[in-house]
Amino acid sequence: LMRPLQGSPSRSVVVGTVTLCLAAGWALQTPGGVSLVVPQPNINATVAQNILLSIEYSCRGVPTIEWKHVSSWGTTSIVEWRSGNYVNISTVYKDRVTTFENGSIQLRNVGMRDAGYYFVTVMEEHGTNAYGTIIVNVYEIIYEDLHFVAVLFAFLAAVSAILICFMWLCNKSLHLFQKKTTHKLTASTTEEIELETIEC
């Protein structure tokens, strides 16, 4: 009697997984591989601030780097350049973007429309690509808070002025009271001297 071989499906899965891992490792070791790291994937900024969209990549060949911005207003190409050759900055970002050799870009004077997702693609000449994403949140300066601080400062200044005036009045009243008391004491002392003179 022949019994069916048990466990063969699980063995084939293990063999397939090992083969896949070896193939992936071989692909990573072949020339032309690209690796990309995004050190700060989430950036918070306020309006009119400058931000740095930083990446780090390694590549055996000459890479082409491309940045795109995706938001609720649509997708916009920011810049594309090939290392050492050319830089093609979109007209929308012409005066606001600085590119760096390591693939990073600086975006100057951000506004609310600059919030969203920034996608970077590093394309190696042999056809290998690497992708990265940075989320940018842009916040407005809340003038209501500044207004509250200004009102509070004015209130404290008014209270301080009132307290200073009150202290000045108290000091003046105390001075007048001391003057009257001194005058009375002088008058009573004079009367005593006169009485002593009369008795004598």
UniProtKB/TrEMBL annotation:
Record-annotated membrane-spanning stretches: 146-170
Q: Which Pfam families match?
A: V-set
**Positions of the Immunoglobulin domain:** 40-139
Compartments, record wording: Membrane
Which biological process terms from the Gene Ontology are attached to this UniProt entry?
A: filopodium assembly; positive regulation of excitatory synapse assembly
Q: Which SUPFAM superfamilies match?
A: Immunoglobulin
Q: Which UniProt keywords apply?
A: Glycoprotein, Membrane, Signal, Transmembrane, Transmembrane helix
Does Transmembrane show up as a keyword for this record? Answer: yes
Q: Which domain of life is it from?
A: Eukaryota
Q: How far does the signal peptide extend, from start to end residue?
A: 1-27
GO cellular component, alphabetical, reads:
axon; dendrite; plasma membrane
Q: Which PANTHER family match?
A: SIGNALING LYMPHOCYTIC ACTIVATION MOLECULE, V-SET AND TRANSMEMBRANE DOMAIN-CONTAINING PROTEIN 5
Record's protein name: VSTM5 protein
The gene behind this protein is Vstm5
